[in-house]
Specification:
- The protein is α/β, with parallel strands linked by helices.
- It contains 13 helices and 12 strands.
- The chain has 3 domains: about 90 residues, Winged helix-like DNA-binding domain superfamily/Winged helix DNA-binding domain (Arc Repressor Mutant, subunit A, Orthogonal Bundle), CATH 1.10.10; about 110 residues, D-Maltodextrin-Binding Protein, domain 2, CATH 3.40.190; about 100 residues, D-Maltodextrin-Binding Protein, domain 2 (3-Layer(aba) Sandwich), CATH 3.40.190.
- Helices cover about 50% and strands about 20% of the residues.
- Helix 5 packs across helix 10.
């Protein structure tokens, strides 16, 4: 019986790895997401292929793609992982303290601000004993939810293409023009700004980076000089050092403002951009916890943004009251 249990456990883990590889298109990215080495992830995939005597991945292309057998395996594996996740959730809901462990995914830009309060909320109000926190980009959150590596995520990606989820909006925030503190040039249009300063932005592998690129293409603005980074603190540090300008939201600016980086924050000229921060959880599995998390995150971020940016921050996060308290 113990041998069968171990085999089943290894098979489930191999399926988790396989689904993560298909979702991310990279063994390295899947391994990082699941907290293991690339070698261990590859061994899981090889073991799965050996068990069923099939080739599951076409490794000759980038990103890697599932073979015909891999497509079939992905469909069955996602169904099995969903069933296992539901079983685990049902078991956690038994007894006087049903939710003993909570796995929470957070936007990297807000993780430092909200993590301590969310841990206290989960422990004091919901009896959670163990917390596992994941900080990352919004692109990571879909894989975390799909592979059951997170129960709840606070994200700018509402995951509308996934069924069986409940969503609680936190707030909508506007993108802003962020300049070096000493910049004195014209900011009447983005066309003028890009002729004077390089654009510092998130890379195209991130949701924010892609959105900024799309916005500039719609405006037919082509920055002649671009610096890319994958963390908001890196972007704001380059701007504060006078290397260029950027386009960010208040939550993406929090860390830089807390560190008192010299920045000149203004409304974005021309067409507006915005995004919504949302708490996403598996539907009806966590009672009132997702709504409570959304309420806490809303209050915490509002206090931090208004404290660091004053009226400019209050105007940029423009529908706190419309969403509700």
């Amino acid at each position: 019986m113990e041998q069968r249990s171990a085999m089943n456990s290894n098979l489930i883990k191999a399926m988790e790895v396989f689904v993560a590889v298909v979702e991310t298109g990279q063994v390295t990215a899947a391994a990082r997401l699941l907290g293991m080495t690339q070698s261990a992830a590859s061994q899981h995939i090889a073991g799965l292929e050996k068990t069923y005597d099939v080739k599951l991945l076409d490794r000759g292309v980038r990103p890697v793609r599932p073979t015909q057998a891999g497509v079939l395996m992905h469909r069955h594996a996602t169904q099995i992982l969903t069933a296992v996740g539901t079983l685990s959730s049902d078991m956690r809901h038994q007894g006087p303290h049903p939710i003993t462990r909570l796995r929470l995914g957070l936007q990297a830009s807000i993780a430092t601000t909200v993590s301590p309060g969310l841990v206290r909320l989960a422990k004091n109000d919901f009896g959670v004993q163990d917390m596992i926190l994941h900080a990352g980009q919004s692109g990571d959150h879909e894989a975390l939810i799909r592979t059951k590596q997170a129960d709840i995520v606070v994200t700018s990606n509402p995951l509308y293409d996934l069924d069986g989820l409940e969503r609680h909006p936190v707030f909508t925030e506007s993108f802003l023009l962020v300049l070096p503190a000493g910049f004195r040039g014209s900011v009447r249009s983005l066309e003028e700004v890009v002729q004077q300063l390089p654009l510092v932005r998130f890379g195209d592998t991130t949701d924010v980076g892609r959105r900024i690129s799309q916005h500039l293409r719609r405006l037919r603005v082509q920055p002649p000089r671009v610096i890319q980074a994958d963390r908001s603190s890196m972007v704001t540090a380059c701007v504060a050092d006078g290397m260029g300008f950027t386009i960010l939201t208040p939550t993406l600016l929090i860390d830089g403002l807390v560190e008192r980086m010299p920045l000149n924050v203004r409304p974005l000229p021309g067409a507006a951009m915005s995004r919504t921060i949302t708490v996403v959880a598996r539907d009806q599995e966590f009672a009132s916890m997702p709504a409570a998390i959304a309420k806490y995150v809303r209050s915490s971020l509002r206090g931090q943004i208004e404290g660091q940016m004053g009226q400019a921050g209050k105007e940029a996060v423009h529908i706190f009251e419309a969403i509700g308290e």
